[in-house]
Amino acid sequence: MLLPRMRFSPAVGRPRALVRTAAIAAAALLAVGPMAATSQAQPAPDLPQELINAIQRDLKISPQDYLNRADLAQQIAAFATTAQRQYPQVFAGSWLNEAGKGVVALAKGEGFDAARQAAQDAGFEVKDVAKSEAVLRGEKNAFQRWLDEQPESVSKFVRGVVIDTVNNSIAVRADKSDLPMPSFVDPARVIVMTPPAGGEQADIQRAGEIAGANGGPLAAGDGYASVAGRMSLRCSLGFNGVDHAGNTVNITAGHCNPNIPATGGANSPGVYEMIGEKVGTQLGSFQKSVLGNQDYSIVSINDNVRDRFQNNLVRVPNAAPVAITGVATPVVGAPVCKSGSRTGFSCGVVNAVDQVVQVGERQLTQSFSANICALPGDSGGPIITGTQALGISSASSVADYPICEIPNLIGLLTGNTPQLFAQPVSVVLSDNPGLRVNGN
After folding, report:
1. Which of 65, 295, 354, 378 does the annotation list as catalytic?
2. 361-372 as b/e: b if 16+ CB within 10 A
3. Model confidence, pTM
C-alpha cells in the first residue's frame, strides 16, 4: 500500500513473477525532462498563489504558459484519437516537446501523405520515424512473451514496459541495469528506477468536537483519515463529484481504504476530517474501492456534511483553491500539478501513459506517471493539468524520504527524478457510468 500514512499495514514482500502485461498506447518513459524556461507572462488571475509558485519553481514557465500547454495537450490527444483510427499504418504517437509544441510522429506507409497534411493543418510538428505504433505494439507483445519465459531471477526485477513514442521504441522499467534483454530492446531504454515504496507509520489520535470545524468547504487536497477498527490511514481527498444516483461523493485512492472487503456494508471503513494531526468528525464511508489493476475509491458523503463537498475545488489545505473545469486525458509532455495534504502543490510533466507498473504485489495498469515528488499522506489527492481533473495520486518512487527537497536534489544531480504514478480519472469515470466530477 503506497503513500498513505499508516498505523498498521499489510506486509509487502518482494514481488513474485512481476510483469505479465504491458501498456499498449503511445507513451514516452522518462523521456521528457523539465520544461525549457520561457519568457514570464503575467500570472493567471484564476490560479491560487500556491499553484503559481509551484508552476514557476518546478516547471520554470509562467502560469499562462502552463495553461496554454495544458490546453494544447488536450488538442493533440483529440487528434491522436482520430489519427489512430484513420491512419493506423503510419501513426506513431504524439506528445508535447520541451518547448511546449505539439509533435506527431509518422512512419512510412499507406496514408502517410494524408496524415502529414492533417497534422500540419492542425498546427502540429511532424517527426518522421522508422516504426509505426502498430509495429511498436508488436515489439511490446514480443517482450511480454519473452518475459513469460524468463526465470523469476529475471522477471522479478522488471517493473513495467511501455511504448516510448518520443524515442520510437519500447522502454522497460527495471530495478537494476544488468538484466538480460531481448535483442530488440535498446539498452538505453532500460530505465532503472527505485521501486515504489510503502507508507510510513503514524498514530492518529481522535479529536473532540471543535467549534466551527464543520463550517467550511472541503476540497481536493485536504487531508482525511480512514478508520476501520484499530486500523487507520491518513490520505488526501480527491475530486468532489456525484454518483449515478446524484449522491455527493469524493473520488480518492483505493489503497486509502484500510479494509476493502468490508466496503459498502454496515461496517464499511469511515472517512474522517483531520483537525491538525487528530481525527475529527466523520464525513462519510467507502462506497466502492478497487485495488489491483486500478487504484481508486468512491467515498459516499454523509448527508449532514454534503454541502461542504458540493464544490469543484482543488487546493493546498487552508489556502485559496483552483476551480476544476473538466476532465482531461494524460498526454506525454503535458504539464501537471498535484496537491496533497502533506506536501501541497508540486508540478512536473507526464512521461508515460497507459503503462503497467508493478507496485508491491499488484500491477497498476492504465496508469500514467510524472516527474513529481509525493510523500506518504499525499495518496488519493488530485492531479490536474491546466484546470482540468487528470488523476489520483497512487504510488511514489520516493516515499521513504522525509521531505521532497532531498529526492529533488538527488534527481538534479543524477537524473533519477522522483516518479509519481497515478490513476487516470477518465478511467474511473468510464468504469462507473453516471459518475462525474464537479465542474465537468
Report:
1. 295
2. ebbbbbbbbbbb
3. 0.87
Cell of 365: 495498469
User: Contact at 8 Å (CB) between 95 and 166?
Assistant: yes
How far is residue 306's CA from residue 247's CA, in Å, rounded to a whole number?
A: 9
The pair phi, psi for residue 418, each rounded to 5°, is -60, 145
Contact status, residue 222 vs residue 250, Cβ threshold 8 Å: no
Helix, strand, coil percentages (3-state) for the chain, rounded to 5, are 20, 35, 45
In Å, the largest CA–CA distance within the chain is: 69
Which of these, 362, 418, 423, 353, lies nearest to 389 by C-alpha position? Answer: 423
DSSP state of 201: B
- pLDDT tens digits, one per residue of 219-256: 999 999 999 988 889 999 999 999 999 999 999 999 99
Q: SS3 string of 140-163?
A: HHHHHHHHHCCCHHHHCCEEEEEE
Residue with cell 464525513: 283
Question: Over the stretch 150-163, which tens digit does the pLDDT of each residue have?
Answer: 999 998 899 888 88
Active-site entry in 379, 393, 396, 397? 379
Return d(Cα 121, Cα 297) in angstroms, integer: 42
Beta strands (DSSP E) in 165-247 are: 169-174, 190-192, 205-206, 223-228, 231-236, 239-242
Active-site annotation holder among 169, 243, 255, 341: 255
**Is 97 within 8 Å of 103 (Cβ atoms)?**
yes
Are residues 289 and 299 in contact, defined by beta-carbon separation less than 8 angstroms? no
| Grid cell listed for 77 | 490527444
Q: Are 15 and 358 in contact (CB under 8 A)?
A: yes
186 catalytic per annotation = no
Q: Quick one: pLDDT at residue 121?
A: 97
Grid cell, residue 322, equals 483552483
Q: What is the pLDDT of residue 37?
A: 40
pLDDT reported for residue 32: 40
For 172-186, b/e burial (b = at least 16 CB within 10 A) is: bbbbeeebebeeebe
Cβ proximity of 157 and 174 under 8 Å: yes
Dihedral sign for Cα 263, 268, 274, 279, please: negative
Length of the chain: 440
Asked if 295 is an active-site residue, the reply is yes
Under-50 pLDDT residues of the chain:
1, 5-41, 43-44, 197-202, 208-213
113 counts as catalytic: no
Angle between helices 112-121 and 63-86 (to 10 degrees): 150
Cell of 343: 506536501
